Amino acid sequence: MHLKLRHLEVFHAVMEEGSVSKAADRLYLTQPAISIALSRLEDMLGFPLFHRSKGHFAPRPEAYLLHMDAELSILAVEQFSNRARLIKQGGTGLLRVGAIGAAAFGLMPGLVARYTADNPLVEIDLSVRSSHQISYLVGNGQCDIGLVEAPVAAPSLEAEQFSLPCVCIFPAGSELEAKAQITPADLAQHRLIGIQESNQVDRQLRAVCAGAGFEMRAPVHGFFFAVVRRMVAEGAGIAIVDALNGCLPPQDGVSWRPFTPEIRYDTALIVKAGAELSLPARAFIQMIRDEMQARGKLPDMATV
Q1: pLDDT digit string (tens) for 51-68?
Q2: In whole angstroms, what is the distance from residue 160 CA to residue 180 CA?
Q3: Domain region containing 139
């Protein structure tokens, strides 16, 4: 049996409209075309669906039994067609993103909100992992996109690097707010919160402090920039963090100033080498690229 969608559409239209003439008008077909389609459907099924009398079609019990199935089949085809159209336009799908803490807390919430507002049918699965774990997931196809710390040396990955400035954050109302920029000498007078000893920002900061003639001492470490910011908000000290997490609106009671000499935080956007990315993935990558390039420079302090 080789049923065609047109057979189901004709059968459904006759059942819904109650007559061949109205079904023909609904489907923009002639009445003979409707009659022929119904006859072919009955031939394929092996039993009649309508009583025919002087041009009138009255549904048999078998027709009522099949009517709902025909309607569901037509709806399924329409859903398939709509879903395919959305996929072609990049409007549906699943996007799997892995991000280190700096990007997960300071970048991704805003990007996801903006992207899903325009693409409500695209599902996004955001995983917060270490750079090593994210690289593994992307390389094995378990994540479509990754944001990790640079550099990236894995041959199974394609990487695009971004460099972010770092700033000094401190509790709002601190005397540091009176300064246009923060120097290593300012750090020596405050309790410093570090990230972790192996973090690239802390490594640069130790070298900067040594160059200024004193040893960097950070009795507290927070691992995530966002956690460190929260510690600063609670008065635990001051910190040097990336611009993603440092240059946020001061609604949590944390202010920031540029730090000199400049310290940079290098990150990379990674995908699996040679992978054919979906339209949603390509669109989301462009959003990440645009935002990271914009964040490569500090905001004008006059607008903060």
Answers
A1: 988 767 899 999 999 998
A2: 32
A3: 93-161+266-303
